[in-house]
Amino acid sequence: MIGILDSGIGGVSVLLEIIKLIPKGHFIYYSDSKNNPYGDKSNDEVYSIVKNIVNFLLEKGCVAIVIACNTASAMCVKRLRE
Question: How far apart are CA 2 and CA 81, in angstroms?
């Protein structure tokens, strides 16, 4: 299963492209409308939010996670990979 997360619904376009590449794949799309926008939050706030979402997706069985949010990618990817 592949998890896709975004702070809103803009990442749906990313999901649609992934479905074209993996048409028989299984996906979870997580739209974080509760906490968006991320742009007005500190790096630590965004990291905490995104880390919780990543943990949720991992618990659901995702073996890959795509962060379709530019703000989250810029602020969190390096720390999440560690």
Answer: 16
